[in-house]
TrEMBL record, chain B:
<feature type="transmembrane region" description="Helical">
    <location>
        <begin position="20"/>
        <end position="41"/>
    </location>
</feature>
<feature type="domain" description="ABC transmembrane type-1">
    <location>
        <begin position="82"/>
        <end position="272"/>
    </location>
</feature>
<keyword id="KW-0813">Transport</keyword>
<dbReference type="InterPro" id="IPR000515">
    <property type="entry name" value="MetI-like"/>
</dbReference>
<keyword id="KW-1003">Cell membrane</keyword>
<dbReference type="GO" id="GO:0005886">
    <property type="term" value="C:plasma membrane"/>
</dbReference>
<dbReference type="GO" id="GO:0055085">
    <property type="term" value="P:transmembrane transport"/>
</dbReference>
<keyword id="KW-1133">Transmembrane helix</keyword>
<dbReference type="Pfam" id="PF00528">
    <property type="entry name" value="BPD_transp_1"/>
</dbReference>
<dbReference type="InterPro" id="IPR035906">
    <property type="entry name" value="MetI-like_sf"/>
</dbReference>
<protein>
    <submittedName>
        <fullName>Sugar ABC transporter permease</fullName>
    </submittedName>
</protein>
<feature type="transmembrane region" description="Helical">
    <location>
        <begin position="193"/>
        <end position="215"/>
    </location>
</feature>
<feature type="transmembrane region" description="Helical">
    <location>
        <begin position="119"/>
        <end position="138"/>
    </location>
</feature>
<keyword id="KW-0472">Membrane</keyword>
<feature type="transmembrane region" description="Helical">
    <location>
        <begin position="253"/>
        <end position="276"/>
    </location>
</feature>
<comment type="similarity">
    <text>Belongs to the binding-protein-dependent transport system permease family.</text>
</comment>
<feature type="transmembrane region" description="Helical">
    <location>
        <begin position="150"/>
        <end position="172"/>
    </location>
</feature>
Length: 310, 286
């Protein structure tokens, strides 16, 4: 860290006048704490306290309202893993994971072609990115209308002579449709991140490759992909924790009905509709544990400084 | 053709590839635009038109039929929602800028006991996704007595934002420490250094945080939905969500509401494009 490095005392020669003046505030130990007090209180109150108390709740049968709660040990966790719905919510997150994989590939494709000379480059970039900025509830309504029986998608599908479907009503199709909305919403962000990383690759590399007779695929494979590998891995990791914590789109569009319930929707319903705060906390602890595990794997796989580089 | 030329126009000579490239770009743009176009066309149609011609991509008879927008605005309480969202945006952004910059200032410009502990607290918080802990955060908000007030989202938005702190920390390192020293030679105290030197020089970081955070708050649904159930406290997101009940099958009104909510995002995007790309690139990778 730069600050501590600068502040390190030099033992050999006596301190110069400038060095003595360097940090006059250090004589008063509490000065930094004046700046940190409010941020730390808020941080602890809204992040650390909930995380710890959530773990405590998960060991009780608390309903969230009554003054008493009983210790039930691992009971909630056993209950959770023996619920038939539990498997279902993990299956649902696989749809979003598959969607995220497609999203990364599509984003990589468009980032690559937009990094080369393309007409109306900024228009295409803007159009593909804009969905990321749209309000989630508005997106929910846009696609409720889009997927409606006889709606936009059915109209388009008929133009190509295909059969209309119950895009949201069919339990086998609903998660594919919802994951598609998620790809529609987030692809542009991935594309812009990849595009930024591609543009920071030194142009001489392409020139050298061209001189060596490399074609576009070889340039992509041997210059672009290695050059932006850290950001691709980061996106992949974020996709996993993102797929597990999907909430907004399915909650707004289907309310979790019809096979589309996700882990977070289930947790929210347990806590606030069925007043099973203990059980819901256990579910949240499981989700937190999985997300932390994924993050830990990420830190293992990608050295810190390479992520910062992008 | 020289090598430099080929890099600038690598597709020259590959006619089929060029066609495929533009075809894919046009197809993707259509996928983005068509769902939104359906909403815009529908928002301009009358209920009568909707029953006689239910096709969602039909053009309105009168392109200047603002009636649905008036209904959405008045009966959907979007004006009140805009007021509430503006209130939340103003105080959360103000708080985030001060909290982020003060934390960065304290951590980067001072040497003190417990600094490692502070950094660890922030690092641990960055790992815990907010969406997982709401069950327990709900109890904290309840205990503070701010449940169902506009202050609940304000406190949550400014208290749990680690990304902004990282953006400020990243940026403050590039401000030369000699500037602080020069000011101190003139007898300035730490608060003066923060207020007169650090904060003004952090302006680009403040712009980034305001854009990234502002878009996130404007679009957030989860926190207002959970912490402000009363109808009078609807934000843009929750007020629009409540269109679902009363306007049921009146897609022309729901479309108008959705279009009204999307419009400010579009205006901000067109006006601040460059800042937005850079801001999200900075925010998402930290």
């Amino acid at each position: 860290m730069s600050a501590s490095h600068l502040a390190r005392p030099r033992p050999v020669r006596p301190r110069t006048e400038a060095e003595q003046r360097r940090r006059p505030d250090q004589r008063r130990w509490w000065t930094p704490w004046v700046y940190l007090a409010v941020p730390l209180v808020l941080l602890v109150a809204f992040t650390h306290v909930p995380a710890v108390s959530m773990f405590v709740y998960s060991l009780t049968d608390w309903d969230g309202l009554s003054p008493t709660r009983n210790f039930v040990g691992a009971g909630n966790y056993l209950d959770l893993f023996t619920r038939p719905k539990m498997l279902q919510v993990f299956v649902v997150s696989l749809f979003y994971l598959a969607g995220a994989a497609i999203q990364i590939v599509v984003a990589l494709y468009f980032a690559t072609i937009l990094s080369f000379n393309t007409r109306f480059r900024n228009v295409f970039k803007g159009v593909l990115f804009f969905p990321y900025l749209i309000n989630g509830v508005a997106i929910g309504f846009v696609f409720l209308y889009f997927f409606q029986p006889g709606g936009t998608l059915d109209t388009v599908v008929r133009l190509f002579g295909l059969e209309p479907h119950l895009w949201l009503g069919d339990p086998d199709l609903v998660n594919t449709s919802l994951a598609g909305v998620s790809v529609w919403r987030f692809m542009g962000l991935n594309m812009v991140l990849f595009l930024g990383a591609i543009q920071s690759i030194p142009p001489q590399l392409y020139e050298a490759a061209s001189l060596d007779g490399a074609n576009r695929w070889q340039q992509f494979r041997h210059i672009i992909v290695p050059g932006i590998k850290p950001i691709i891995s980061l996106s992949a990791i974020l996709a996993i924790s993102g797929a597990l914590s999907v909430f907004e789109i399915p909650f707004i569009m289907t309310g979790g009905s019809n096979n589309s319930e996700t882990f977070v929707i289930q947790t929210i319903k347990l806590a606030f509709n069925f007043n099973k705060v203990g059980l819901a906390s256990a579910a949240a602890v499981v989700l937190l544990a999985v997300v932390l595990l994924v993050t830990w794997v990420q830190r293992r796989l990608i050295p810190e400084e390479r992520v910062e580089l992008s | 053709m020289t090598a430099a030329h080929r890099r600038l126009s690598p597709s020259s000579g590959h006619g089929v590839l060029t066609v495929l490239k533009y075809a894919s770009l046009l197809l993707a743009s259509a996928v983005v635009v068509v769902p939104l176009l359906a909403i815009i066309l529908t928002s301009l149609r009358t209920p009568g038109e909707m029953t006689t011609d239910p096709s969602p991509l039909s053009a309105p008879a009168n392109w200047f039929n603002w009636e649905n927008f008036q209904i959405a605005f008045a009966e959907g309480h979007l004006l009140r929602a805009l007021g509430n969202t503006t209130f939340i945006l103003f105080f959360s952004l103000l708080g985030t800028v001060f909290i982020g910059s003060m934390t960065a200032y304290a951590v980067d410009r001072f040497r003190f006991r417990g600094k490692k502990v502070v950094m660890t607290l922030f690092l641990v918080a960055a790992l815990v996704p907010g969406v997982t802990t709401q069950v327990a955060t709900y109890q904290v908000v309840n205990g503070l007595g701010v449940m169902n007030t506009l202050w609940a989202p304000v406190l949550l938005y400014m208290g749990t934002d680690i990304v902004s702190i990282y953006i400020f920390l990243q940026f403050i390192r590039s401000i030369p420490i000699s500037l602080d020293e020069a000011a101190r030679m003139d007898g300035a105290r730490s608060l003066t250094v923060y207020w007169r030197i650090i904060l003004p020089l952090l302006r680009p970081a403040i712009a980034t945080v305001v854009i990234v955070k502002g878009v996130a708050i404007y679009n957030d649904f989860y926190i207002p939905f959970l912490y402000m159930p009363s109808e009078g406290l609807g934000t843009i997101s929750t007020a629009l969500f409540r269109f679902k009940g009363p306007f049921g099958a009146h897609w022309e009104v729901i479309s108008a509401g959705a279009a009204l909510v999307i419009l400010p995002s579009l205006v901000v995007f067109l006006a601040l494009q460059r800042f937005i790309y850079n801001g999200f690139a900075a925010g998402a990778t930290k």
